[in-house]
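User: Before I run my own analysis I want an independent prediction to cross-check against. Here's the chain; please return only the structure tokens and, at the end, one sentence I can use as a sanity check.
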Amino acid sequence: MKHIEKAIATLNQQKVKRTTYTLLRTFDFFNYTNKTLDNKNQIVVDPYDFYRTGLQALINDQIVRDGNVPLSKCIQEPHNDGNWIQDATIYSSLIRASSAYDHDQNGQLALANIDGFKETGTFLKQIFILPYLKSLGVNTLYTLPFFKLSSMCKKEELGSCYSISDPFSLDETYLDPMLEGMDILEQAQMFMEAAHLLGIRVIVDIIPRTSSRDSQ
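Assistant: Structure tokens:
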């Protein structure tokens, strides 16, 4: 849980100059008190305080579990040849899309909006969707690849998540600049910790056959 705790400490040091950060109410699993509603019934918050408070609520409400080992070991589940998957409710997610949102409400999704916030999905923002998925009965998250992508002949602005240039590195697209000082690996570990706290397994799609033309 050390990566979640580091994220909380990092967010606690940041202050936003103005509150123009908009989110769907789905992100607010902990009933954040310092929010306002706009005319579209979206919440408007101080993002640093919102995410810090949410991560703290997640820690307070859950049993401590390690994000660096399989959930089966965390909960000391008896080994049964992987038969847990027969009872799994699996949700497939492309993180950069699943937790993307137009935070400044200008009609576009930007890697850095007018206030400097990332509007595509990040590991931090994906955490705040997990409680909603759990409420639907999801207990396993199947993530599409989040490894380092190639910029050669890429599709559209971000490229295909299957055009992997380095399967041993994570793509910086998923890094949230609000967690200044935490690298992409730490932010990914933070996400895994949060999923395990909620009792959600994470399966990562690893497809070596779809590497990019300039793959390492």
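Sanity check: The first helix runs from residue 2 to 12.
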